[in-house]
Design goal:
The protein is α/β, with parallel strands linked by helices and 296 residues long. The chain is built from nine helices and seven strands, in the order H-H-E-E-H-H-H-E-E-E-H-E-H-H-E-H. The strands form two sheets. A five-stranded mixed beta sheet has the order 3-4-5-6-7. It has a two-stranded antiparallel sheet with strand order 1-2. A hairpin with a 4-residue loop joins strand 4 and strand 5. It is elongated and about 155 Å long. Keywords: Coiled coil, Membrane, Transmembrane, Transmembrane helix.
Amino acid sequence: MAFLSFFWAEPKYQITAGIITLISLVVVLILSESFNNLSIGKILTLSNEVKKKEEEKTTVKTENKELRQELFKIVSNIQQSQVNNTFNAPSDEWLKALNVVKSEDESEDDTEEDQDEIKKASQFLAEREKNRGRSRERMQTRRRAEDVALHKYFSHSSTPQSELIQNVEFSNSFDEIDPIMSRKIKFDGYLKTISNERFIEIIPNYMTHRSYQDYLYVMLNKIHCYREAKGISADLLLIILDIEEVDEDSKRPDRTANLFEYFQPAIANKLLKVEHFTISQQEIKDFETHGQQSLL
């Protein structure tokens, strides 16, 4: 229309207000397609919400799809539950037969099995108590053998046994001397003479295994630190006992061979002295009877 008015209307080639208005409307329509919002003052406002509507439509479709899936799961679970209840429901005859009845007498096989179990349990308890008794007896024998060994040692020593102090350890101030370990070490005995201080350790020959050798090393290190700090002569007397067992089944192997080999430097440096005593069961019995008089 603007084209025809410009070229064919009279007068020709004249831009009128109508042409300007038409061209302005066309421009506004074109611009409204390019922008979401177009405003010309307070006269004209155009909004393009197509994109927003598409996004809302997509969101609604997604939610509908999720709702349909959840609804399908619920319906499937209900149907499956109904099927299970249909097949698993007990019959009326079975429910009538379900009852409580008196148990039958135990069979002979069950009775014999119970008796065997009781017999095995009794044997186990008896064997355990027997082993405990052997352990207590062995410990008591070891203590008596230690007393016999001390009596034997002092019977050939110039120092009377009355000078012996049993069950000793270093004082707390020793922690400042030992730069390595603050562990407390207990000794079976201690003798102090004018020229020497002697610590005593007594152990059966079957206990001189590798772990005890580590413990013996710690003892010797403590005595070495003590000797160096005080500038005196001090050593460890290790008394190894070969205790006669009551029967051959109780006899255990001698493990002292490696001990002498490993601690030769300590023996050569007069830090360790080893005495070996064989103690018989008769000596232990005699000492129990006459021990106190023998010590006088």
